[in-house]
Amino acid sequence: MADKLRAGVIGAGRWAKSAHLPGFARSPLGEVVAICDLNRGLAEAAAKKFGVPDVYKDYREIMGRSDIDVVDVCTRASPEDPDNHERLVFAALEAGKHCLCEKPVAHDYRDTWRAHELAVGKGLKTKVGLTFRYAPAMMYMYELIHEGFIGEPYIFNGFEQNSQFISPVEPVTKRDLIPPTEVEEIKVSSLEGYGAPIIDLSLWFMGGELTRVVGLLKNFVPYRTDVDGSRVRTNIDDGDIYVGEYANGAICSIQSSYVTVGNYPGLEARAYGSEGALICRLVEEFGECQTLHSAKPDAVEFVTVETPKRFFPPGYVKGEPWPSLFYTNLVHNFLKEIVGGGGVNQGNFAQSARVQEIINAVELSDRERRWVSLPLGG
User: Which of 100, 131, 210, 295 has the fewest CB atoms in 10 Å of its CB?
Assistant: First the structure.
């Protein structure tokens, strides 16, 4: 293996440029040596900005290079190609590459498990873009919970919401928000794209698996404006909520939406237990993108908790944008896991499969109007 892990990035859109590429640029353990996008102009612009030497339009060029250790999949789904993450992930693993993939790996949790099992069989590490577990304040919150700050976990409340698609007249820039016209049932959108990170945190913090869920998917803005100015039907869940019960007896409520007034990232995690409570907010407000507060039974007023410096990524600068701040931690953590070897691999495809299984269960609960038991069959 070279002094640095060599990465090939597939997808050169907004999130690649604001999160993935800055993350790789700041980790001393890796470097991006190739970037690929169907829009070659996008790839060339990103390559120029981040000093990436090689540009491709065909992802197979990256898969075929023996000198690339890590493949990063950050392509955008579309109605015409909704499963491109799944296809690219399996291609990367078959080619013997460690793989980072934006969520979801696959829309069916069983396919995500298949990807995980393939990776394990080949001795490869995987990572999913569950970005917010790598926010410094969230990492510290996990440590405090693990050390017993809240005691026995009772209740988790999670929110992942912002108002970026609240306007019906703003052109839809994400093509996956427009489902095929022949689809009559509500298409999962917010729960999968925005709910996944808070579902991940709910499992991580509460230390247990869910045994059952009941949920609702709602379509609050049924028509939106397409990029050509036409009015299109968008039968998607743009707001949702579910209640769940854990095997350890704890309970949770999770809400996700992108038609709820609020700023990015729009995430809040609340954990309550027998000995205390913690609330972490990842919302850009008044110059801050993350805050952590704590309380105890004998001091019920929440007080601000300062996050130790050890949780911040290489090259951290106070006030930097949250995408690069959180994602640098994610990328650096992944590269450390690869270099370090062993079995440590947090936020991997197995975790993504657990999250996707809950999403699939909530979808089933809404469709059949009932509690759904976990694990699902299959």
Answer: 295
Amino acid at 18: S
3-class secondary-structure state, position 217:
strand
Angle at the Cα of 288 (from 287 to 290), degrees rounded to 5? Answer: 170
- Whether residues 92 and 139 fall in one domain: no
d(CA 356, CA 200): 10
The tens-digit pLDDT sequence of the chain (378 residues) is 458 999 999 999 999 999 999 999 999 999 999 999 999 999 999 999 999 999 999 999 999 999 999 999 999 877 677 789 999 999 999 999 999 999 999 999 999 999 999 999 999 999 999 999 999 999 999 999 999 999 999 999 999 999 999 999 999 888 888 887 766 789 999 999 999 999 999 999 999 899 999 999 999 999 999 999 999 999 999 999 999 999 999 999 999 999 999 999 999 999 999 999 999 999 999 989 999 999 999 999 999 999 999 999 999 988 899 999 999 999 999 999 999 999 999 999 999 999 999 999 999 999 999 999 999 985
How many separate domains does the chain show?
2
Helix (H, G, I), strand (E, B) or coil at 358: helix
Both 236 and 106 in a single domain? no
The amino acid sitting at 257 is: S
